[in-house]
Amino acid sequence: MASNGYDLWLRYAPVEDQTLLTTYQEQFQSVYFKGGSSKLDVAQKELKRGITGMLGQNIVLNPSFSDKNTLIIASAKNLNTAISASLEKDLKDLGEEGFIIKSINTNGKNVIVVTANTDQGILYGTFKLLMLMQENRDLSAINRVEKPKIDLRILNHWDNLDRTVERGYAGFSLWNWQKLPGFIDQRYIDYARANASIGINGTVLTNVNANALVLTPRYIDKVTALADVFRPYGIKVYLTARFSAPIEIGGLETADPLDPKVKQWWKAKSDEIYQKIPDFGGFLVKANSEGQPGPQNYGRSHVDGANMLADAVSPHGGIVMWRAFVYSEDDATDRAKQAYSEFVPFDGQFRDNVIIQVKNGPIDFQPREPFHPMFGAMPKTPLMIEFQLTQEYLGFSTHLVYLPKLFEEVLQADTYQEGKGSTVAKVIDGSLHDKKITGMAGVANIGTDINWTGHPFAEANWYGFGRLAWDPELDSRDIAKEWLRATFSNKEEFVNTMEQVMIDSREAVVNYMTPLGLHHMMDTGHHYGPGPWVDNLSRADWNPVYYHKADSLGIGFDRTKSGSDAVDQYAPELAKRFNDPKTTPEEFLLWFHHLPWDYKLKNGESLWNGIALKYQEGVDEVGTLIKTWGKMKPYVDAARFNEVSMLLDIQLKEAKWWRDACLLYFQQFSQQPLPAGVEKPAETLDYFKSLRFPYAPGN
Amino acid sequence: MASNGYDLWLRYAPVEDQTLLTTYQEQFQSVYFKGGSSKLDVAQKELKRGITGMLGQNIVLNPSFSDKNTLIIASAKNLNTAISASLEKDLKDLGEEGFIIKSINTNGKNVIVVTANTDQGILYGTFKLLMLMQENRDLSAINRVEKPKIDLRILNHWDNLDRTVERGYAGFSLWNWQKLPGFIDQRYIDYARANASIGINGTVLTNVNANALVLTPRYIDKVTALADVFRPYGIKVYLTARFSAPIEIGGLETADPLDPKVKQWWKAKSDEIYQKIPDFGGFLVKANSEGQPGPQNYGRSHVDGANMLADAVSPHGGIVMWRAFVYSEDDATDRAKQAYSEFVPFDGQFRDNVIIQVKNGPIDFQPREPFHPMFGAMPKTPLMIEFQLTQEYLGFSTHLVYLPKLFEEVLQADTYQEGKGSTVAKVIDGSLHDKKITGMAGVANIGTDINWTGHPFAEANWYGFGRLAWDPELDSRDIAKEWLRATFSNKEEFVNTMEQVMIDSREAVVNYMTPLGLHHMMDTGHHYGPGPWVDNLSRADWNPVYYHKADSLGIGFDRTKSGSDAVDQYAPELAKRFNDPKTTPEEFLLWFHHLPWDYKLKNGESLWNGIALKYQEGVDEVGTLIKTWGKMKPYVDAARFNEVSMLLDIQLKEAKWWRDACLLYFQQFSQQPLPAGVEKPAETLDYFKSLRFPYAPGN
């Protein structure tokens, strides 16, 4: 079955296993499913679509019970008492979004029951049922009880009103503001379906580098139209609030958060929005960071700013997500330390409906960073984690990199803040410190490309983000398998091979871009390709040389107690471990230490040789990936097979570019030859330095 | 059959008429079609795709002749002598691109033969065969001999290197420069298929407001990849040449076309391009117009500039398309006159491989303009016509406006330059003055929207342009029918109803935007919506008030002999007719005349009432369109039915906006009430003047 990727993991391809097909067909012989609400209606529509595709037959959804029912989809209050009694215990803890899919013996025969406390739970249960069938799972003895471990499962779109997308590599913004509100693009609906199928329940439509215009009546009407499309799918709409909006569109002279007129303006603006969108989610704010205005412009604090906005939306049940991605121009020591320094002292001072949004690492979405030290360090403040799905620093939409592996590494990292086992996941899901709100944000990798994400495998990063936001304890390998089955094929050889490829792909990109704890070495502005030599930007901490600090003595950023002392932002166990190169995990070695070129690595190689070999390893891994993919031809339709093949060839070329450019540059300092096994660069350092990409996307 | 519009008019929907289906199946029982060239290969692929879709069966293409053949697709030299002898006369005049589709009785039975002198002809013949089947035509006695009447049938993409499209309303540029040359998007192939199916044989990839970077080696590699994709479909690639490129990317200090270094630079640049793209088409140039550099910057003429570039590409068979769209800042009289004034004196001075590209009318793609007076006025110079498919001035991609009706009006206009019957079509196809090159350019309305053109009916404008470029004498009504059958349905009631709707749609937009010869009344910059009041732009001839000249005495631009005397750029017969309001066709009345508000129209109404009633008529026509479309529901899939319905609702709203804003504005001068039958405006003039659209697309 050819595919252009538009259907994502909701392909509903025909079940090929004939025995299983027959079983499924029997199980769908008589379905009870009564509609009546917009959520149930979209669930029914999805079920019909899925069954038509997978079983090759239309199904009738009966609106009344019958003894013949083989499948019952109904909220708890509509179940017959025998069935609901048997599920009572599960239902009690299910909350507003959970669901049960269970095979129950009643009246002497098995019935599959999909139930929940709410219509939203029914919708999620329906999507899960269809997904299990796409994975060709046996439903005969099914017993699934699921509810999300995190409240806010949110995509952040860095979409501008002119439809460009900051750091977008999959075309342009889905939101056609020109044709809204009158024209509802089918993509809006399919976007909502895809999100609901993995439990995403919120979307921030606009860029954190915000434009106040989206808060004007004309745009609120357009946002309302989108909110109306997304509502049946359980997806709330959020907007980014430009802090200076009261000046720019409100006619005020200040945006001081303590000024009564400013407070009143935001209150009125919130009321105006909620009148049109009663379930509006709230605001996401980037303040006093990278040129964005904020409370500090008026001598006020993040607390003042966030609480003022929180008070404006609080009467309507709205929230404020306040970003911790800040780093001051004036701080001379270490950018990695600043968010912690600025925010941790405020612990406990934010309103109940404020949540602080913290990037996964302390710098900026690098191929690998240690977890952000704020996680676990603010016991009285809700923190949500922000991951980046769009591959700003990981090869745009051209490199196959499976990000859930990266996310999992961060989520499973131990903060030690309440002793061993205090993982980031437990900070995020609120279980470590009992948080009032919990959340996970993913900076979307979605655009107008027909396959949504540019690279067919980048769809897995959207999918995997949703799955981990639902349950941050999931194994990224299991997620890969689910996705592969639904998206490509259930053939075991394909799934087992490609699952490993996806898992390995993340380490490959680390190796060919920034091995051994190196970071922030990309070229200026567009972040496309290597630029370790860049040293001419106006702020010190925008320059790659600030981060790798390569010189004749060695390489790496000294963040030990005798350096910037960033290590002491971590719990004592970790601070101690990170303070000593011998106990620092080698993947973070040059993140925490400046070490001589002849420093001996665990494998006995010198640091110089080790770096060079890691770069080569990354390139080789891409080579292996290409070979493996070549063998997958029998399992994949020609269109996507060719697409991925072409993209892998580009990835290999660019991996070599990273290797050659970085090694030639560092060789100037190490003054040592490339070790055996490392290919000789095809071009000179000057050539690599001369490359310019004025129209690279996403900038 | 649901459709997202991606398949355009190449849907190949199953033939529903069972008798016809059986006949077709018999006719495709035994097909001789030998491949062997890239053009034949894509023709075979298309045939298989079409037959699978329409007849529900795969076909085998036999590479050797058999007596059983029911269909023979082969170039003339591969036909058996009996058949080729019977076609000898037709083949002689067929040229390089023509084809024959003919039912021939041979060996006592009928065989359908598709033949041509070239593989390109076979490809065109194959597409035509499939189109005839999509129209459900009987092939039993088919006898078609076709060849294009125009040499260059070219799309102009106003696409920038950052993928924005100037005046693009269907998303962004198809050309993903970032991923080229390594990644070939399937859209490039489908774009080529669509173009080849209607005979388009050239594409200018880049904006006429040009960027020299596209001429650098890195971009030439990317252009080469596109040329390689398009070649099998008979489509040549062209680029826009920024006149100052020798300075910007060549390191020269001048771009003076008479400077030997400049000449040498363009020669070397052309050689470099042709080495990679041996069939590169040549350059399109916008020079000394709207801020673009050109020969006049160096005191040289258009002839100097065009001939210099022509000499550079001439050794490789390339051409130069030099745009006549010029209007000087300094000319105080009438913008409409300037292109003629600047170019006509140069007649006969251009190189043989230069063709002058002239917009259809003397201003700029307005809903209605008289034909451009240059047509017929340069007997010794090839002129190609430039139409705009993208609806810059006709409602963006939100309004249903069938443009081939507009194109036909221009093509059938009589220039009288060689006596009665000297139509623009005859100027364009070279028959009036025996031109060396002939051409038609269409500014593309294509973008990354899934349905390519934003509005499902805007696909018809692309289709119709191709058809008219192939044969400028075609009836726009016939073209509409072909398109409707292939794109939507063969149901007669649907085709007959919608054909009339499409034909009427063009007059509707004239009526609700710029009736009775009014023109250039759009808002500034983005050209979205009405702005008749705009009078503050730096150049007089950028302001709507320059064009309508409404005052207390009347309205309209006096272009008579006592006015700007633009009438005298037309042949004497027309000059005389246009000089008198009584003999001027009323659709051009205010184009040529400034008339008092109480001037009496042919229908007896005063001019003021007539204008107001025309605006109302336009709005009413959209209302009728909505009602008619509502009745088409049984014939159209739900997806496209709803899309068009939503867009029509927007069109109605915007038609009313145009009516109300323009009438309220002009009413200030006429000081007269709206006549009976004209709806009262819902908003004030100040409201309409206050509207701002900073992120309107295409700007």
Tell me what the structure shows.
2 copies of one chain form a homodimer. Chain A has 699 residues and is α/β, with parallel strands linked by helices. The first copy, chain A, is 37% helix and 10% strand. Chain A contains 21 helices and 16 strands. Chain A has helices at residues 18-27, 38-55, 81-92, 119-134, 186-197, 217-230, 245-248, 260-276, 302-313, 338-343, 404-411, 424-428, 459-470, 476-487, 492-513, 544-548, 572-579, 589-592, 607-631, 638-670, 685-690, and strands at 31-33, 61-62, 71-73, 99-106, 109-115, 143-146, 152-156, 202-204, 236-240, 282-285, 319-323, 354-359, 383-388, 439-443, 554-555, 595-596. An 8-stranded parallel barrel of chain A has the order 7-8-9-10-11-12-13-14. A 6-stranded mixed sheet of chain A has the order 2-1-3-5-4-6. In chain A, helix 10 (338-343) links the parallel strand 11 (319-323) and strand 12 (354-359). Chain A is globular and about 80 Å long. The two termini of chain A are 36 Å apart. The mean pLDDT of chain A is 97. The interface between A and B is medium-sized, with 33 and 33 residues.
For the record, give the distance between the C-alpha atoms at the N and C termini of chain A, rounded to a whole number: 36 Å
Oligomer: homodimer
**How does the helix and strand content of chain A classify structurally?**
alpha/beta
Shape of chain A: globular
Number of strands of chain A: 16
Rg value of chain A: 26 Å
Largest sheet of chain A: 8 strands, parallel, barrel
Share of residues in helices of chain A: 25-40%
The fraction of residues assigned to DSSP E strands of chain A is 5-15%
Integer average pLDDT of chain A: 97
Uncertain segments of chain A of ≥5 residues (pLDDT<50)? none
Placed side by side, the strands forming the largest sheet of chain A appear as 7-8-9-10-11-12-13-14
So how many helices of chain A? 21
Most extensive interface, residues per chain? A-B, 33 and 33 residues
